[in-house]
């Protein structure tokens, strides 16, 4: 029976709980967030023209299975750069978050260096290829336990099972499984310049976003110019400043008109008094 066909058949959070294996590879962190069934999984990546990128991850559990209710979430697993396998010089901060949306962890990873595509290890999440950055978030592994015994770094290869969605009806992460209505998912990637390939995501300015959990689970990719504002239209680059300028000009004109009207009224009153 497909998981999405009935609430009682959804994959439990405990079955998809993030394990050490998937977390030791930065390329699979976003996928492990998606594995939190009945939860929130948001990822915002910002790539700098200076050759590095930052990632903000919000992971929330509304079931109390991954993060037990009644006590602050334990985010220590997500705050250790060595455990995550991120490159040297990378800063990792993880803080517990609470609220009506569920308990969870806010993880901020900053200063991740971007390698050249020609020298990058296989399945590196972000590479520079000429004038563009290419980002590939790999498919969610059909069996997270396959990762737990593997060594890896930020550029380690994902398990073979994650190469394509499975059609096996018995697999809890199979292609027949739908995360819609179960996982609140959003993945956003912001490039220095214009988006050159969106991979089916929604483009706004230099940012491409996916909010379909099933699409993210199958893996997404995008590319954009590595130079600041390259490929971005003059209007998009200047719209904010032009709008602010017009608002300011409008305010100045409004004040001038009011002052002129006030001066005319005062002049009329004086003339009336003199008569």
Strand and helix layout:
Layout (H helix, E strand, L loop, with lengths): L19 H4 L5 H6 L4 E9 L4 E10 L14 H4 L1 H4 L6 E7 L5 E11 L12 E4 L2 E6 L46 E7 L4 E3 L4 E3 L2 E4 L2 H5 L2 E6 L8 H41 L1
Parallel strand pairs: 1-7
Antiparallel strand pairs: 1-2, 2-4, 3-4, 5-6, 6-11, 7-10, 8-11, 9-10
Q: Rg, please?
A: 25 Å
| Overall helicity | 10-25%
* Count of alpha and pi helical runs: 6
SSE sequence, one letter per element? HHEEHHEEEEEEEEHEH
Q: How many separate structural domains?
A: 2
Shape: elongated
Percentage of residues in strands: 25-35%
Strand count, sense and barrel status of the largest sheet are: 7 strands, mixed
**Which stretches of 5+ consecutive residues score pLDDT under 50?**
1-27, 142-175
Given the helix and strand composition, which structural class is it?
Answer: alpha+beta
How far the N terminus sits from the C terminus, by CA atoms, comes to: 95 Å
Number of E-state strands: 11
Provide mean pLDDT, rounded.
73
Strand order of the largest sheet: 3-4-2-1-7-10-9
């Amino acid at each position: 029976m497909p998981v999405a066909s009935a609430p009682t058949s959804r994959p439990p959070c405990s079955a998809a709980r993030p394990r050490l294996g998937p977390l030791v590879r930065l390329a699979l962190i976003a996928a492990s967030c998606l594995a939190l069934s009945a939860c929130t999984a948001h990822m915002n990546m910002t790539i700098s023209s200076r050759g590095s990128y930052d990632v903000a991850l919000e992971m929330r559990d509304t079931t109390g299975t991954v993060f037990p209710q009644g006590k602050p979430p334990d985010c220590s697993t997500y705050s250790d750069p060595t455990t995550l396998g991120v490159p040297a010089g990378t800063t990792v901060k993880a803080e517990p978050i609470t609220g009506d949306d569920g308990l969870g962890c806010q993880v901020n990873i900053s200063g991740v260096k971007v390698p050249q595509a020609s020298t990058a290890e296989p399945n590196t999440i972000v590479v520079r290829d000429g004038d563009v950055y290419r980002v590939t978030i790999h498919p969610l592994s059909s069996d997270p336990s396959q990762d737990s015994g593997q060594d890896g770094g930020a550029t380690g290869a994902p398990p073979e099972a994650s190469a394509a969605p499975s059609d096996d009806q018995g697999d809890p992460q199979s292609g027949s499984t739908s995360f819609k209505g179960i996982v609140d998912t959003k993945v956003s990637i912001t490039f220095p310049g214009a988006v050159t390939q969106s991979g089916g995501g929604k483009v706004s300015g230099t940012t491409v976003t996916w909010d379909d959990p099933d699409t993210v689970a199958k893996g997404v990719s995008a590319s954009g110019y590595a130079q600041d504002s390259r490929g971005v239209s003059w209007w998009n680059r200047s719209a904010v400043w032009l709008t602010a300028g017009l608002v300011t000009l409008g305010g100045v004109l409004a004040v001038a008109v009011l002052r002129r009207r006030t001066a005319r009224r005062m002049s009329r009153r004086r003339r009336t008094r003199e008569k």
